[in-house]
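Action item from last week, closing it out:
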Amino acid sequence: MTEQNEQAQQDSSEPQESQNNNKQLILSLIIAVVAILWGIKNPSTALRVLAVMLGFGGIIMIHEFGHFIVAKLGGIKVEAFSIGMGPVILGIRKLKKGWKIRLMPKIGEEQIVEEGDNETEYQIALLPIGGFVRMLGQSDTGAADENDDPRAYSNRPIWIRICVVSAGVTFNAIGAIIIFMILFMNGIDLKPAVVGRVLPNSPAYDVGLVEGDKIVEVNGKRFIDFESIILAPALAEPGEPISFIVSRVDGSEEEFEIIAEKRDGDDSKLRYTGIAPATTLMVSNFIKEPNDIQDLYDTMGLRPGDIVKALGGQAAQTPMDYAKLESQTFQKEVSLRVLRQWPPESEGRMVDVSFPMFVGPTVENFRDKQDLAHFCSLVPRLKVAAVSQPGRFQYFVKWFQTIILRQTPRKFVSELLQRGDVLVKIGDIDLPNYKQLRQVTTEYKDKDLAITVLRKNDEGNEERLDLIVHPKSSIGSKRVKVGFAPELDMDSPIVAQVILTSGQAPLSDIPAGAIITSVDGQPVSNFYEIATLLQDNAGQKVSIDYLHDGLAGGTAVVVSGHEPVHAQAVVAAGIPFEDLTAEFKYSSPIQAAQMGLKKAWQFVLRSYVTLIRLFQGSVPVKALSGPVGIISMTYQVAGTTASHYFYFLGLISSCLAVMNLLPLPVLDGGHIVLLIIEKITGKPVHEKILTPIMYAGLAMLLGLVLIVTYFDLIRILGL
């Protein structure tokens, strides 16, 4: 009777297995057909998605191949080695006589391996997103499976098992080195260590670095690209000076010591030097998507590959020329002359494109009062440059409060403020400056704040409006905001404040709210004209006439010869100039290997330091990127050049080599720790202890992934 029951159960299980196999086959075919049809309809996007999958799959395959090859060398029986994840499409095994090929094998199908057959089946799975190695007696989720076979993972010496576990990260590091070696042999364009812009009031600014300086050595190391400048503050201890040897434009070399510091108002807590990378005067050719190209033209009137030749009628031969002209152009609008070759195969022609100018403070941290944007100590009023628009979720919350909870929700900032509104008062501060606006906003976090603005009506007359706003911190930031971006009211000649600045006699005779009518005898109608006249008369004595409460007044002042205009003028559109790059190429394989090793080590160090700073609290979790952020970046890089795509994969492979060594039980580093404990105690960690440890480690890892994914989505969606 028992034999009949067993036979009946076996007979009933066969149709179930066949049914499961048919479902797997149908599902796989549906996925394949849908993917092919979508790829035909969206070839460009499909190729980039495929590049992301193959790239990540390749990195994981390198990792798994490390486990596989060392397990084989260590005498461990490897039952399967799979390329790809998901349903198995093809399985190949070398037999004593010929080959065994399984096409779309049944789920759970038991294989009979006879003496002389190869013990490992090589598989190809449906999804090209990695792979796996299945070793006899090895488990990733807990204690090793018990097995009498001497070649089982759990029965091999501990040192062999440690080698097998650590082989994955070792091969990731080796893979990164090989990728970089090949790239350096063929040549790759990277950002050179050239100073593009020095942020005012930054450590680099304080020691005298200027645009165009080439950094040839950092802390005694001569092989550097711009990555070395980024990495130096991260590697240095707080307060530790960084040694830079700089080649000046005239060819001379000077040594500087810079102490990196945290940037005021920056929630990331990362230390910086204040050095920005150099750019060219060409609009980025990396803009490839048709929608992005059209958007560039619709918003800026530019095309990829446009080269700026002049600004405001004055020639700009270098980025330094452009930056100097830009900073001295105090106009409401400026014309750029660009050399255009669009479509790419057409002949070049000159085109004039107009852009609005933005004038603001040179720095955002306002360490000193004189950091405020001012013109010979005169500070213009502030006005609303842009108002944040509510998202769908905010509309849903408002609907829920109104319809479901029967509450009267607060108005959105976009319903209260408009672009062009002039700030007359905020809290108790009349005609506030940037610093006062920030201080009052922070003081009123999550509280109602009274704000008064001037707004032009349909007839063009200004009306005074008293409003109530509700400042709050934005997602993932400590910065408290009202919901609008302020800018200087350069369209008006009205003075908000007169401040005391170093090196400049204050125009204290001019009261707040005064209307400047002339400078040096020339009539003015806005602060653009005031700034230009003061700048043109640097070092000279000028007269300034004004009106206040209907009464005329006047004074005279000697304009400072050094920075008479302490404000930043920039083309407001934010032109996407292409980064300055230089080819890094080494014809000797030995040199290329050395450079590949240094570059991989550079990224390993960067990952290691980031983790240390993360646990110290000096780097916030939101500064990290998780799977979503990395996939998003890979997708963008996949649309550029092959060399930069593989360079990015080398970076990811280097980082994974570090991340996988974290002592979390579910990672390779955690398995190594458990094996060391087994070596010390003479026995494996008991399953009753190991299981909760594994779950705790998994929970920690998933929690971290969820947090960084949350911030990735915030960045990608612009919330």
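Closing note: The chain has a mean pLDDT of 82.
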